Amino acid sequence: MHPAFSVIFLTTLIGVGQGMFLALFTGQSYAAAHFLPAQDSTGFFGIGSLIALLFLVAGLVASVFHLGRPERAWRAATKWRTSWLSREVIALPMVMFFVFVYGVMHFMEWDMVIFSTSTGVTFKLSLLVGALGSLAVFTLFLCTAMIYAAIKFLQEWASPLTIVNYLLLGTASGFTLATAFSMYTAPDLVEFYGVWAIIITIMAFVSRSASLIRNSRIKFKSTIQSAIGVRHNQIVQKAQGAMGGSYNTREYFHGKQALFLKSIKWLFMVLVFPLPIILLSAGMSSSNAEVLLVAFVVQYVGLMAERWFFFAQANHPQNIYYQTV
């Protein structure tokens, strides 16, 4: 399948925004429990939320480019009872709303203590907003991943690993960005975010590797008969037909094209996992903000390659019938 770059940008950009917000909320939660030093509300949480929101908005803008009739995009939300796409359309603005409110509360310092414990742990209103926003973030991760995991006849996607990968890859990129951001605004948190970014990246490596191994062992259930809905053992494809050239086939995975696909796989495996870990470690040990920023950029480029591979690897059953020349 030929992936649209608008979808690639959509899923990777909102993943960074979601992961960045989770990083901010995690840092505030640890600080509230006195596990981390408190940070400047405006400079760290306020600006950080703005950065997360910008990534979410950029993803939303990217999504418009793969719509045939953008002016009718609002109708996508009407099928929320049965469509994961409709649920994503609802969940994304919800995440953006909570990120915006969370950021404004910190930036304008419109926060207040709801209650505190005898041990000195304080629970502020912004933590409640952050908790609701985190719930919306996890919901959005689920909705985005289930758009593909729910398609049973695309066996490469129909797996719980699809959901796990979307969650871990997006969170890893967000924490990597938070590590670079904290070097500029909250140096006390660099090690905290950097270590978590490495841990989540390793977890993502394990889950993505598991999905690659699974997909390499798939025994496809579709035949030429089931692909076209005809039960006959003597069907022979003689011609493409008028629309034959519009479809991809499993021939796409042979020869030079298979080599190209394999190259993309190894490219993203290097850019998303080991290289960012090396750069994160180097940046933390040398307190170099530029190296940490490069770690994020490298990982994001790798994520775009990973998402392209995710879409391109899928085999549609109709491809058994139609032949690409």
Describe the structure concisely.
The chain has helices at 5-32, 41-64, 84-107, 125-149, 160-185, 190-216, 224-228, 255-272, 274-286, 289-312; strands at residues 113-116, 122-124. The protein is an all-alpha fold and 325 residues long.
Report on the structure:
It is built from 10 helices and 2 strands. It has 325 residues and is mainly alpha-helical. The chain has a single domain, classed as Formate dehydrogenase/DMSO reductase fold (Up-down Bundle). A two-stranded antiparallel sheet has the order 1-2. Helix 2 crosses helix 5. About 6% of the residues have low confidence.
Primary descriptors:
about 325 residues, 10 helices, Formate dehydrogenase/DMSO reductase fold, two-stranded antiparallel sheet, single chain, mainly alpha, about 65% helix
Name the overall outline: globular
Overall tally of domains: 1
Biggest β-sheet strands, sense, barrel: 2 strands, antiparallel
In the CATH hierarchy, the architecture is Up-down Bundle
Order of helices and strands: HHHEEHHHHHHH
Structural class: mainly alpha
User: What share of residues is helical?
Assistant: 55-70%
Topology:
Elements: H1 5-32, H2 41-64, H3 84-107, E1 113-116, E2 122-124, H4 125-149, H5 160-185, H6 190-216, H7 224-228, H8 255-272, H9 274-286, H10 289-312
Antiparallel strand pairs: 1-2
